[in-house]
Amino acid sequence: MSGEIYLPDAAATEALGRSLASVLRAGDVVLLSGSLGMGKTSFARGVLSALGLAGEAPSPTFAIIQPYAPPEVRLPVVHADLYRIEDASELEELGLDDALYDSALLVEWPERVPASYWRDPLRLAFANAPAGGRALTWDASAAWKRRWRPT
């Protein structure tokens, strides 16, 4: 199942992220694609806010991995930014596979590694919309089809 949704501003992007938080569970993979400034981190901030994170979540651009765990959030989440990854072999060092046992993954720049690396992801691609704002194209794998219904 796939579709497209219009997001007029950062507030709408964060609100959509908050709506995803209600169905997010350990083992989930959410892939956030799009060029710089398209809303990937805003979406992740919405998810983390709805999971209980107080304050603003930092972008993991330089840290690459930003983990969140209870009681900071109600569900363990790993927010990853793979922009600086040059080879898929570097992912082993980051421990993303291990994180899937008890955490959800929010992954920015997933295209930096082969698509086959990701198991049953929800793929979200952010782009400029012709009338301003952002166009979000989404593709839900079988694991997401009954849970992800953006409005």
Automatic annotation (TrEMBL):
Cellular localization per UniProt: Cytoplasm
GO biological process, one term: tRNA threonylcarbamoyladenosine modification
Keyword ATP-binding in record: yes
Coiled-coil ranges (or none): none
A molecular function (GO) term: ATP binding
A Pfam family matched in the record: TsaE
This protein's UniProt keywords: ATP-binding, Cytoplasm, Magnesium, Metal-binding, Nucleotide-binding, tRNA processing
Oxidoreductase keyword on record: no
Domain of life: Bacteria
Any one annotated GO CC term: cytoplasm
PANTHER family: TRNA THREONYLCARBAMOYLADENOSINE BIOSYNTHESIS PROTEIN TSAE
Family membership noted in the UniProt record: Belongs to the TsaE family.
Name of the featured protein: tRNA threonylcarbamoyladenosine biosynthesis protein TsaE
